[in-house]
Structure prediction request, 187 residues.
Amino acid sequence: MYFIIFVILVILQRIIEVIIAKRNEKKMLSKGAYEVGASHYPYMIAMHVSFFICLIAEVILFNRGISPLFLWLFILFLIVQALRIWCLLSLGSFWNTKIIILPGSHVVKKGPYLFMRHPNYTIVSIEILLIPLMFQAYITAFSFTILNFIMLSVRIPLEEKALMEATNYTKEFKKKMSTPLPNNHNH
Prediction:
C-alpha cells in the first residue's frame, strides 16, 4: 500500500514538472529560444516512463517489500526532493525537461548552480537509484542507472555545446576553472 501511494505521488510530481516545463518552453520560445537535441528527447521520455513501469512490475511480480533501510532512504529522498526544488527555483523559467537555449542569455549562477554545472542531472541520477532501493527493486535500480548514464552521456555534451555556442557558458566555465586554488605546500 505504501509503495502504491509513494509511486502515485512521485508520478504526480513528474506530471506537474512536465506542465511547468511546457509553460517555460512556451515562454522561452516566445523570447527567441530554440530546442537542441530534440531527436533524443522521445527516448528520454520513454526511459523515464519505462522506469516507473519496470519499478511497479518488479515490486509486484517479485513481491518486493519495503527496504530495511527505508527510513534512511526516505530521509535521503526528501533531501533530494528539496535539492530538486532548489534547482527548479534557481533556474526559474530556464528550467525545462528539454534543452531550450536562449541565445545571448547569461547562464544561471545561483543556488546549486554555484557549486556544480548540472545539479539537476545529478539529482535525477540519485533518484533513479534511490527510489527502487527504497522498495528493494534492485533490477530496476541497476538497469535504469545504466540507461540513465547512457542518456546523460548523449544529453550533457549536446547541452554544453549549445550553451557554449549561444550563451556566456564558456566564459563562466573558464572563470570558474581559472580561479586560483589555495597554495598548499604541505603534501
About this structure: The two ends are 55 Å apart (CA to CA).
